[in-house]
Amino acid sequence: MYVDVLLGMQWGDEGKGKIVDFLAPKYDIIARFQGGPNAGHTLVIGGEKTVLHTIPSGIMQEGIMNVIGNGVVIDPNTLIAEITKLTAKGIDVKKYLLISKKAHLILPTHKVLDAASEHAKGKSKIGSTLRGISPTYMDKTGRNGLRIGDILSPDFKEQYNALKEKHLHMLKQYDFEFDIAAAEAEWMNSIETIKGFKLIDSEYYLNDGLRAGKKVLAEGAQGTMLDIDFGTYPFVTSSNTISSGACNGLGVAPTKIREVIGIAKAYCTRVGSGPFPSELDNDLGEKIRKIGGEFGATTGRPRRTGWIDLVALKYAAILNGVTQLAITKADVLNEFEEIDMCVAYNVDGAETTEVPFDITRTEVNPIYKSFKGWNTDLSPHSKFETLPTEVTSYLKYIEDFVGAPVSLLSTGPEREKLLVK
Ligand code: GDP
Ligand code: IMO
Ligand code: MG
Question: Does 13 participate in catalysis according to the annotation?
């Protein structure tokens, strides 16, 4: 019938997992379209936390199909570890998970290349999650990659060895020690296990489903400001995280997309290096990190924190064609007398509401508008209508600035802590 796309509008970790899990029952299929195990999507159900890296966030809801699309890069070891954990929770992953034959494989040597490259960059490192993302996408666009469908080929081992040799040769340029023996043995076992899953031509599966009246939710990973084309390059990830990435990463046409749900935190975070104009490198930032539990779901690294950046958010709304906004973690701001929003940048003495090309090299100073905080517990509120006026005017300002309505407001990590308009 149609595809709705749900994606992050900031630098990732906006709460995509939670929102997808909540929305999943409205759809027949949840499909991840890019990224890989660099993602960490957290779901809190009945007080129990689950972190998903490669598997779509619809897996915890009974009866919904979950597709890992062709745009995703898969580390067999991470995928099997994830499946094992879900199986222990009583989830029938084999029944509800479908994997695109065209999804690319992360080899153990891709991870080593990622680490060696970051090590060589020293202070100017990207702050990669070291999951092998960039080398894998490089092999994809360089036309050297191995795909899930290849594991069924009788000469897969030879294909693997040829690519590994190439990587070992590349690694000679680095002064970097490594030992992949254990990871490689596990990788080969994981490949054998993956053979027992449903490996499909997901572009046909999805388009046949759409023709038969099925509803698909495309789940993004990372966030718009980490997009390879439009993010804060080179401090980005290696895939298109924006809505057009759903077309490439799933094989669905733009004309099939209905709603684009853009997610943003009520403030802002970033993990890894790179520009963050509204960063609060002070006590306020520490307060947000502490209350918001801002530590990476994948790497455990402390996340950098700051005020919401409406300049970046508007940019994201335009690039993605956002039709609805989901604002998360509003509860984290419950104890603030005053809340700021970045409404413009000062770049070289000139004010702008556009994200500048050279954001990574130029000093970008945020210009803030202050709002009175609601300074109250939001948990008793389950409807937009009863929210304190400070929250309502805060949301209204975002809507007007960004040009899209807020349809969801999240006030806690749990599945049910969500206000729906
Ligand atoms: P994702 O990568 O976009 O799925 O987000 P992550 O799971 O990496 O990070 C979001 C974190 O915030 C997780 O720990 C969630 O459990 C938590 N979370 C999501 N929504 C809310 C919310 O509204 N309030 C609070 N306090 N935590 C939330
Ligand atoms: P989710 O889906 C936050 C960041 C890394 C680093 C940069 C490049 O959970 O929102 P990579 O490993 O992709 O080469 O790292 O991107 N990054 C994320 N930050 N959330 C994510 O995913 C991220 N995935 C990658 O920290 O700065
Ligand atoms: Mg995350």
Answer: yes
Cβ(10)–Cβ(225) below 8 Å: yes
Q: How far is residue 316's CA from residue 309's CA, in Å, rounded to a whole number?
A: 11
**Separation of 278 CA from ligand 3 center, angstroms?**
20
Q: What is the whole-number distance in angstroms between the Cα of residue 212 and the centre of ligand 2?
A: 35
List, as own/partner pairs, every contact residues 112-115 make where C-beta atoms lie below 8 angstroms and the sequence separation is at least 24, other chains included. 112/167, 112/171, 112/176, 112/178, 112/180, 113/167, 113/170, 113/171, 115/176, 115/178
For the Cβ of 128 lying below 6 angstroms from any atom of ligand 2, the answer is: yes
The one catalytic residue in 4, 28, 41, 331 is 41
Q: Does residue 110 have an active-site annotation? A: no
| Candidates 4, 13, 21, 114; catalytic one | 13
| Type and span of the H or E element at 100 | strand 97-100
Q: Using CA atoms, how far apart are residues 69 and 239, in angstroms rounded to an integer?
A: 13
Q: pLDDT tens for residues 285-327?
A: 999 999 999 998 778 889 999 999 999 999 999 999 999 999 9
